[in-house]
Amino acid sequence: MGKRADRSSSAGTASTRRRFLKTIGAATALVGVGSGQGVARTVPSGEGGSRGSATPRNVGQSNRKNAVGSLTSHEISSCTTITSPGTYEVVDDISSTGSGVCIDVKANDVTIQGNGYTLSGDGNGTGVGANLGATSSGPITFRENVVVEDLSVTGFDTAIGYEEISGGRVEGVTARENGTGIALRYGVFGLTVRDSTLADSGVGFGTVGDPDVYGGPGNVLFEYNDVESNDRGISLGHGTSDHEFVCNRIVGNSGGARHSGYDTQGHTYDGNVICSNRDYGLLNVDNPAQEDGIPAFEDVVEATNNYWGAPDGPSSIGDPATPYEDPVTGALADGSGDGVSESLDDGISNVHFDPFETSPPAGAGQR
What we know:
The protein is an all-beta fold. The protein has strands at 74-76, 80-82, 86-90, 94-95, 101-105, 110-113, 118-120, 126-130, 143-149, 152-154, 158-162, 165-171, 174-176, 180-184, 188-189, 192-194, 197-199, 203-207, 221-223, 226-228, 232-236, 244-246, 249-251, 255-259, 268-270, 273-275, 280-284, 301-302, 315-316, 339-340, 351-352. The radius of gyration is 21 Å and the shape is globular.
């Protein structure tokens, strides 16, 4: 029987702070910026188009509205830039070359319905880019509610990238053999990533922010996903806060989940399967005080009720002679499952892992 202990206390959830600058200089991008691709012709959904169709229709974009006032669907059969709200239907497999963005979204309230089709790259660029380059120069342009559904993306430096967007959803997406499956940059808040597979890539799901620009991604819900066979399954970087990881499979990666960078905090893991990851299950990197005056930064990741790959719970990263203690309950990470990390205090973990599940939770992973 696995360890079971009442939770006596918990780490506080940090509030997400949005930071503005009056002027923004050039910023180094995590994901590609710019289009460089042709703009596809779009047609109303009633004009036809099927999975078997290989020839784009030579029809202009429709601006008709239905009875409730929303835009009618438009078809996408080649790389395009989207500048108007609406629903956009992918109607064929699409190939992309070069360092640009294949489907480049620069509008609010956009839904891309992939219909099971595939975007294929040549190892460069971005498959779907939502507001990329918003912080690259000049005033920041914010967007809202960009949705990507039922799409396969393969062979890109970044499969799907978001920047300076509130709300939206990525659901039913398969991202394989990319540099990064899903990348979130500065100022992404309230996004949901659900029921997707992120696999066979350098990073499955990655985030990065910058407190000198507009903070990092915050308040993201990541649920019912398969994150498998990546070099790093989940990588949360600089300024990332308040993400919830619920009922996912984080399995068979070189590293399971890694948190690093100043002000990366407030994350929770619940009901996940975290196992068979070679180097670690959950590595939370605390930062000691530095000589240039930067104070020490410590955070405890809330990660109870997860299955670590063995009935006796997680191990301690590095297999120390004295296993790490749970920072709340004092239970030892002395199991044979995937490893958890040590805090700046010797022998104490910075992952609150106890209690844990003794078998895989039902329903974890893509549904």
